[in-house]
Amino acid sequence: MGFLIRPKAEDNNYPNFMKSPQLDIDECAGGPCEHGGTCIDLIGGFRCECPPEWTGDVCQIDVNECEITYPAVQVTATSTLRTSTAVAAAIAGASTSSSSSALIAALNAASSTLAAAAANATATQLGPCINARKCVNLPGSFQCICLEGWGGPTCAKDFDDCVGQCKNGATCIDLVNDYHCACATGFTGRDCETDIDECANSPCRNGGECVDMIGKFNCICPLGYSGTLCEIMNDLKLFLVLEVFHIESTSDDI
């Protein structure tokens, strides 16, 4: 505490500046405030202005951030969609080889049904932690144990699960702790890594050789046939067939 020197009125040995209360000790000189608190010197005392993580007369008490009620975080329709069963339903309704536009349209349709619910929804929150399993209080701080797919100091960051996943020109749709690849034409698989064999069903006719290509196939037709599937008999081939038929018919009549 500060103190004042009050000389006796009859004591004339004191200089003039000592004849009235003048001297105040700086109580902040010894640094009484802990944990980075700012000391404010007062007449006969001091006051500590503490950082948000500490409280008490000299900032000696740790604030438990996990017990503080923070404003609820509003959930957008997009984030609600990404964490809901509507995502699974939308994806289940489209095959892995479906076009990007078809799958995105399905997701948008699911999103519209969730918009009203999302308007009043809030994220899972524990103290300052959003989308977290647990909030751990630490001296002067806190730690958020995030749910799968979330990160950052308060678990507010949704990890981009699409990085480096979809192949061969596929469109990746980022989900919470998951992703979905809308494959380009001609590819299939979890990451659209498999080229679909368009020759598997033997589309070429009349002995044509099928050559598998990306998203399509090509028929190499035998002599006398043409067309996409070798389905057209050329005029020369037709003439030869008719000629052979005519000769055979004539032989039968003899």
Keywords:
254 residues; alpha+beta; Laminin; two-stranded antiparallel sheet; two-stranded antiparallel ribbon; 18 strands; 21% helix
> How are the strands of the largest sheet arranged?
1-2
Percent of residues in helical segments? 10-25%
CATH topology of the domain at 198-240: Laminin
- Kindly report the name of the CATH homologous superfamily of the domain at 198-240: Laminin
What portion of the residues fall into strands of 2 or more residues? 15-25%
Coarse morphology: rod-shaped
User: How much is the average pLDDT?
Assistant: 75
Largest sheet, in brief, is: 2 strands, antiparallel
Helix/strand class: alpha+beta
- What's the CATH C level of the domain at 198-240? Mainly Beta
CATH architecture of the domain at 198-240: Ribbon
Radius of gyration: 41 Å
